Amino acid sequence: MMVLVSYDVSTVDQKGRARLRKVAKACQNYGQRVQNSVFEIDLDYGTFCRVKEKLMQLIDVQKDSLRFYYLGNNWHRRVEHFGAKDTYDPEGALIL
Amino acid sequence: MMVLVSYDVSTVDQKGRARLRKVAKACQNYGQRVQNSVFEIDLDYGTFCRVKEKLMQLIDVQKDSLRFYYLGNNWHRRVEHFGAKDTYDPEGALIL
């Protein structure tokens, strides 16, 4: 299933900047960065729950914001992109 | 129908910073900012097409990125939020 993860991490102090790096890294390990703080993560439900749990532990709930948009399996028809930074289709053909 | 609009606008020059302000303003006129460059826009299809057209004219397709995620009408069950900056439900009860 495809989940869109977007976050706003407060970077006013060093701790915040460290949190931002960790949240970005955790997302990068499992998904595709489509914009600065927006990732598409295509995982089975069990694995996704572990990633979500990790992200929720990384943020400061008083200062940061974390949003999950569950796009389901038919996500291709739900997404449109215009402009730079086009993305690859994780389920598409891999041409070697 | 609810559409998530997220954008990355290149701000390396003054033109880019002006584009960013215009894109943000256009989104703000029609929807709710949920994160820095992420908006939830809940409109009928015709009105949304005009907003989309306007946003596409505002960005520089060589430098900026604009993404639309169509969440449909049952969008409430597709969205989870944790942390700061909670949002209001545009379809929820308005208590005066």
UniProtKB/TrEMBL annotation, chains A, B:
<keyword id="KW-0540">Nuclease</keyword>
<keyword id="KW-0378">Hydrolase</keyword>
<dbReference type="Pfam" id="PF09827">
    <property type="entry name" value="CRISPR_Cas2"/>
</dbReference>
<dbReference type="GO" id="GO:0043571">
    <property type="term" value="P:maintenance of CRISPR repeat elements"/>
</dbReference>
<dbReference type="GO" id="GO:0016787">
    <property type="term" value="F:hydrolase activity"/>
</dbReference>
<dbReference type="GO" id="GO:0046872">
    <property type="term" value="F:metal ion binding"/>
</dbReference>
<keyword id="KW-0255">Endonuclease</keyword>
<comment type="function">
    <text>CRISPR (clustered regularly interspaced short palindromic repeat), is an adaptive immune system that provides protection against mobile genetic elements (viruses, transposable elements and conjugative plasmids). CRISPR clusters contain sequences complementary to antecedent mobile elements and target invading nucleic acids. CRISPR clusters are transcribed and processed into CRISPR RNA (crRNA). Functions as a ssRNA-specific endoribonuclease. Involved in the integration of spacer DNA into the CRISPR cassette.</text>
</comment>
<dbReference type="GO" id="GO:0051607">
    <property type="term" value="P:defense response to virus"/>
</dbReference>
<keyword id="KW-0479">Metal-binding</keyword>
<protein>
    <recommendedName>
        <fullName>CRISPR-associated endoribonuclease Cas2</fullName>
        <ecNumber>3.1.-.-</ecNumber>
    </recommendedName>
</protein>
<keyword id="KW-0460">Magnesium</keyword>
<keyword id="KW-0051">Antiviral defense</keyword>
<feature type="binding site">
    <location>
        <position position="8"/>
    </location>
    <ligand>
        <name>Mg(2+)</name>
    </ligand>
</feature>
<dbReference type="InterPro" id="IPR019199">
    <property type="entry name" value="Virulence_VapD/CRISPR_Cas2"/>
</dbReference>
<dbReference type="GO" id="GO:0004521">
    <property type="term" value="F:RNA endonuclease activity"/>
</dbReference>
<comment type="subunit">
    <text>Homodimer, forms a heterotetramer with a Cas1 homodimer.</text>
</comment>
<dbReference type="InterPro" id="IPR021127">
    <property type="entry name" value="CRISPR_associated_Cas2"/>
</dbReference>
<comment type="similarity">
    <text>Belongs to the CRISPR-associated endoribonuclease Cas2 protein family.</text>
</comment>
